[in-house]
Amino acid sequence: MSITSIETIERNNGMGQAALKEAQAKVVALPAATAQVVSLPQAEAKSLPALLSAWLKPVLQNVVPPLITVALILLFWQIAASGPQSSLPPPTRIWEEAKDLIVEPFYWAGSQDIGLGWRILVSLQRVAIGFSLAAVVGVLLGALIGQSVWAMRGLDPVFQVLRTVPPLAWLPLSLAAFRDSQPSAIFVIFITAIWPVIINTAVGIRNIPQDYRNVAKVLRLNQIEFFFKIMVPSAAPYIFTGLRIGVGLSWLAIVAAEMLTGGVGIGFFIWDAWNSSRLSDIIVALVYIGVVGFVLDRLVAGIGSVVTRGTAQG
Amino acid sequence: MGYLKIDHVDKRFRRGSASTEVLKDISLVIDKGEFVSIIGHSGCGKSTLLNIIAGLTPATTGGILLEGKEVNSPGPDRAVVFQNHSLLPWLSVYDNVALAVNKVFGRSKSRAERHDWIMHNLDLVQMGHAKDKRPAEISGGMKQRVGIARGLAMEPKILLLDEPFGALDALTRAHLQDSVMQIHAALGNTMIMITHDVDEAVLLSDRIVMMTNGPSARIGEVLDLKLARPRKRLELVSDRSYIAAREAVLKFLYERHRFVEAA
């Protein structure tokens, strides 16, 4: 292999020289290229309906199928729940009984007689506080575990056990500790959302390429600079995966927690409606919860995709 | 005395009870403004040697002296141009260089001076026009140019290049080699380059350090190149001393220290 390669290189070299001499010797005049003007078909100015349909088409393609699905579900539900023996109300009866809740989410008529929109906002506020705390503490703890082998050995087993505890199991303890329902609910959100944030952040930080670490070493970045300039951006895709799972879990937990702690949230509304047998109200509330959960998930995912625009591509 | 002194460096890697000796008794003195290439077959420990000079890997015994002082941790006085450019993908070209400039000159230069310095270095590698692009949006050769600009912008005492053009196609590589030659001529930096390309080593270097095969790689031979600068790629093709130098390196690599495993 090695000997032939010398020969090849030398031969190539010799050929290269020969070619060079030849090239210098012969100067061939090429016929001058004549420029031709080719007339291209003019782009037609798009008419307004054409533009509109080009914009509408993808919208329709994405909106029509789920609408059909929803219509079919409602139809099936209507048929199934219409019988006199049925224990659940059909869609038409829900519309009759809970029309005010559906069409007027933000009415206010006394402290317990308020629209579902307000209740959702109260629940969202609790989630916002609990989740923000979980995000900050989770990223910091995750960074610690990802960065230090000893922190991982010490903390990881504990976290792996604690994270399997169901959110509501924390509630009695937190009620005992805080002696108030509001901070207890927030604590439950916090403790629910923090585990996926910690674990994903730690994985993201363990996966920071050695090259980036070397760059930081050559530049002598200190711990704080390294955290903000290398660690967080590099681990951002992982961190946002954790945050997205976390926000979903905290929305699951808040409804359950509010059922037990009372107050004005959407969870308590469902419990209250159950106690006074307003099944239609419960179903409307479920739809609200589902839509808000979906929006929360998309919101965090959207922020994530904007923030990690550069990181995902190598 | 020498500017940079590599003093009896040994490197052994330990895994459990097994220990492999990668480098054995490496000693080399490099003068200020010199361009030194280190060449050898893959796996001979050239990159390990560069990492030891950079301070990224500790030497097992021996040490590195820069201007008479021992250096054993990484720092901007020994900037590294990494083989795979190592630009941070979430920062623009400008911000990648700015990260280095702000860290190194954050105290000594004003904001405007730092901006001028960043642009000066980007222009030096002809990348000023792409300052707002992200690394993913530019070609491999351009990324490596930015990597060089980042290294130069630290105003290092020594610029360490770790197979900087290894991943590039031949034409881009030739282009970048010319750029490096121009920069070296203009700024007179001290540079150490790891390479496995004989032509590249002969074209760019003042001295070529040839390493024997590992394990326990040593410096086999040091070739002094007495080619006048500036060097022109095409003129050198038929230059007698260039051909002789190429031959010497090729003979060392392929006759006396054939890389047996690769054959």
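DSSP finds eight helices and ten strands in chain B.
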